[in-house]
Amino acid sequence: MLLDVADDGAGMSEAVRERIFEPFFTTKPVGTGTGLGLSVAHGIVEEHHGAISVDSTPGLGTTFHVWLPLAAESTAGADESGFDALQTEEGDERIVVVDDDEFMRFVVKRILLKKGYRVTCFASAREALLAIQADPYGVDLVLTDFNMPDGSGLELARELVALRPGLPIIVSSGFVDDDLQQRAIAAGATRILAKERMEQLGPVLRSVLDESTRSG
Amino acid sequence: MFSRRQPQQPKSIHPASRLLLDVAALLRSTVPAGIHIAVDIGPDPLNVWVNAGQIQQVLLNLGVNAWQAIQRPKGHIKFSMHTCQVDGIPTAAPVILPAGATCCWMWPTTARA
Questions:
Q1: Does the beta-carbon distance from A62 to B66 stay under 8 Å?
Q2: A102: distance to nearest CA of chain B, Å?
Q3: So what's the ipTM on this one?
Q4: Whole-angstrom Cα distance, residue B29 to residue A216?
Q5: How buried is B70 (Cβ within 10 angstroms: 0-12 exposed, 13-18 middle, 19+ buried)?
Q6: What is the CATH number of the domain that holds A12?
Q7: Are A103 and A49 found together in one domain?
Q8: Mean pLDDT along residues A144-155
């Protein structure tokens, strides 16, 4: 089947269209990212044995097609839940979200607010650090992006741990490997979260908070 | 790619309409009122075997991209779903698109859409 997302926006030139699914490709200036990224979107759809295609006309708009195989005939047991299925790990802790990407701030904030958390977002490590320096015990957990133009999430983690030892810090990144894992833990991060696995955000957040309560 | 390969995420059966409606509602609650969001779920219930969180993340990303592409106070975003025939595509073979489509990029997979 096809799921289409169409807009009547600016459209894309053929040169842009041919490259949009490449990793790191963006037409936007640094600091205004495209969130999940179309290359990651492609990876997810491919894992579902589907495909993504695009039609675009400059000046008229763009339509993305997401092709997915239909489930087997039986409709019994259809799971009515979507994002709502991920709403079980609730809490009311104060979460600081740091990401230079507007889309990620938007998605993460929506998910966490729905779970009951109190959420404050910052677009840079510097802004977040200033706010937390002003009130180090006004936050229960920091979720920061790894790769940001004005200072990495690891730098921020180092500063925060020095400022407030024991503060739970989750570093999120689009690209997680063993090297990053080790560097993040060395910098004082509690956990690493892969951005394309954002559905793990709730469980990871809850378990990190629970662990910090037990050890603190 | 560069991220470490993670184990397959759990999948279950979901009505595609529900996935689209959730995402459209989430987008509606955030974009300016001048951006009109339409959802056409068609007449038939269509179920897909997916990780709902991941697929909704993809659709939401496309929705946000669409919003950013509009670059004007007013515009339209339309989510729609329908069946199509893409039978028995062998991997890496060309894909025949519906009439009128001018696809420029496609990852053919072994899919029965």
A1: yes
A2: 10
A3: 0.73
A4: 38
A5: buried
A6: 3.30.565.10
A7: no
A8: 91
